[in-house]
Amino acid sequence: MASGGAAFLERLKSNLERNNLVSVKDILTLALSLLVWLEELLSREVSPTIPNYCRGILHLTTDCAVITFLVGAVSAVPHAAIKRQVSQLRSHYDFIVAGGGTSGLTVADRLSEAFPNKSVLVVEYGDIEYAPGIFDPPLAVWGGVGASASYFIVQSLPIPDVKNKTSFVLAGKVVGGSSAINGMFFDRPSRQDLDAWASVASPQLDSSRNRWSWSGLYPFFKKSVTFTAPPAAVAQIYGYTWDASVYGGSTPIHSSFPAFLWADHNLVRGAWADMDIPALQECASGDKSGLCWIPISQHPVTARRSHAGLGHYAAVNTTRPNYDLIVKHQVTRVVYPNGPQSGPPLVEIRSLANNQHVNITADAEVVISAGAFHTPAILQRSGIGRAALLNTAGISVTVDLPGVGSNFQDHSGPGISWAYTNPGNFSPLPSSMSNPAFLADAVAGFDETPARGPYTLANSNSAIFIPLSNISTESQTIINRIKGIVADGSAASYLPADYRDDATMVAGYSKQLAMIAKLLSDPRVPSLESTFATGTSVRAVHLHPLSRGTIRLNLTDTLQQPIVSYGTGSNPIDFDIYLAHLKYLRAMINTTTLREYGAVEVSPGNATQTDTALLEYIKDQLVLSFMHPCCTAAMLPRQHGGVVGTDLKIHGVTGLRVVDMSILPFLPSSHLSSVAYAVGEKAAGRIIQDWS
C-alpha cells in the first residue's frame, strides 16, 4: 500500500477510534467504496481534477493527497466485478438476480458469501453512482431538490376520485435502487402489521420456517442494519432516546441520529406532548404507538447516505470473484423453453447501449427484484400474469396469475399548515443557510471527522404514530363500515374494473379488508403517521389504505415504463379516514405550546369547518404518494389472488422467486427501506437453506 494512503487510513482510524465511533471494518468498507467509485470513473475514461474527486466522493478528508493513492490503488483491485457488456459475462451462472436495488443486492451479497463456489450475477438497469444524501453540499436550501442518484419518474394515469389528478413516484435507477434516492427515514413496522401478513396468508401458506410474522422477521431487521448510538453530548442536547438491544447487526448498512437539529424541532414535539401523545424510548421494537425518535440511513461518522450499493456491493465485490454485476442492462423477461415446470428459466437481458438481446442461463434459480413497478412488468412480458391482458398484448401465457400487477398500494394523505403571530427567536433555522458565514461553516462541518452541522440532516427524525381509536370518536363507525362491505359482498365494487369480477382477487381483497379492520380496532396499531423536522406544516400519512390500483404493461412499447393506475379514493372509506386524520392534526394548533407563539391556522383555514368543505380540501391538497409503492406480486395463496408463496416462489412455475416490496400483501405502518432490507435478508436465508 502506498505510504500516503496508509498514513491517511491510519490517521482516520486513530481519529475514529479515539471518538469510539467506528470499527476497522467500517474503515475498510469506506476505502473499498472509494476504490469502486474510482474504478467506475476510470473505466469510462473520466478525468476530473483531484480537488473534484475530494469534493465528490465521500468528503472523508480535506487532504486530497490520499486521492492520488486511491487512483493508483485501483489497478491493484484483484477482481473488477463491474460489467458493462454481455461479452464480459460467464457462459452461465448459478443465481441471477434481476435488479440491483435494496433487496436484490442484499440477496446477492448473502448468496455470494454463503456459496463461494457458486456464481451470482446481478443485472441492473442503472449505473454505479455517488448517491448524495437528502441535504448535501452544494445544496443551500434545506428541503429543496438537490443532487441525486438517477431515478425513474413514474407518472400515473388521472385518478378519478381525486379530481383526475395524477401522481408521480420516484424509483431508484442506480446500483442501490431506492435506498440510494429515498428520504433516509429508517423506521420499522409495528409487530401487529407483520403478524397480519402471516394471518392473510393462513392457513394455506403456513410454514414454521417461512412464517412472515413479527417473530419471523424481527431477527432479520436486527441483522440487516448496524445502528450506532449518538455521542452522549449530542444525545443530551437533542434528547435522543433509543434501545440498543433492538439492533445488534454488523452489516455495513448504517443507521444513526444526526449531530444537528433545527432550533424549532422541539416546538412541535412539545405540541404533540400537549396532545397526550406518549414519548417512546424506542420505536423499532415493534411497539410504536406514540412519539418516536427515528434514525436515518447514514454513516455515523461521515454522515453520508448509507445504501445497498455501498453496504451490499462496494463493501464486498472486490473480494468475491463469484459476484458479478452488469450495469445499463434491462431484464426484459424470463423464458421457459420447455414449459413452466422446467425451471430455472433463461433470463433475457437487453443492452441499453445497443438494444442487443441475449439469454443468460441460471443453473440454480432466478430472483426477480426489480421493485413494485418493474417486477410485474418483467413477469407480464414473461407470460406470467392475467391471461386477458397477456392475450391483448400478444404474449403467450406461461401461467395465468391475475395478481401480477394488481393490488397496487401507496401511502398518501392531506396536511395542515399554520403561521406564528408571535414567532420565537429560534436559531438556527433553514433560513440561516442564506447567511454566507453560516453556510461556509455548515460545509466545513460536513467535511470534518466526525461530520457536524446541518448537512448531517435528512428529512426528519421525529414522528407520531397514532391508532385510529385515539384519533376519532367515529373510529368504530369507520371499522364497522369496512366490515360491512366485506360481509355484504360490495367490497368487490371498489376494485379496479379489470379484476373486480375475478373470484380469486375478490377473495384476497376481502381477506385484506377484514384484516385491516382488525388492525384499526387494535389500540396498539398506528393508523396515522406524521413527521416533523422544522417549519409550520405537517402531513397526515394514511398507513393502511383500502383502495387498490394496478401496474400494467404499456402495450404500445412493452419495454418502456408500465402504465400505473392509482386507485386513490376508489374505496370511499379511505376518505372517512383522511378526514379523521386531518381533524386530529388540526388540534395541534390549539395546544398550549403553539398558542404561546400565536399559532393561527393557514390551511385548511378557519373558514373550512364542515365535513363537506374539508373533503373538498382533502381532494385538492392530497399528497397522492409518499413514495412507498408496494404489493403488486403479493404473498398470498393463489386462490386469493396471490403471486408468491411464503418461500417467495412464484405460483405455478419453478426456479423463480420475487424478493422486493411487491411481495407485501398490504402496506405496513412504516416507510419501506428497512422492510426491503429485512425481506432481502430473510429471503436470502431461505434460498441458502434450500441450496445447502
From TrEMBL:
What residues make up the catalytic site? H628, H671
Q: Where is the Glucose-methanol-choline oxidoreductase N-terminal domain?
A: 172-195, 371-385
**Which UniProt keywords are listed?**
FAD, Flavoprotein
Gene3D superfamilies according to UniProt: FAD/NAD(P)-binding domain, Glucose Oxidase, domain 3
Binding locations of FAD: T102, S103, V174, V331
Q: Which cofactor does it need?
A: FAD
So what family is this one in? Belongs to the GMC oxidoreductase family.
Record's protein name: Glucose-methanol-choline oxidoreductase N-terminal domain-containing protein
Species source reads: Lasiosphaeris hirsuta
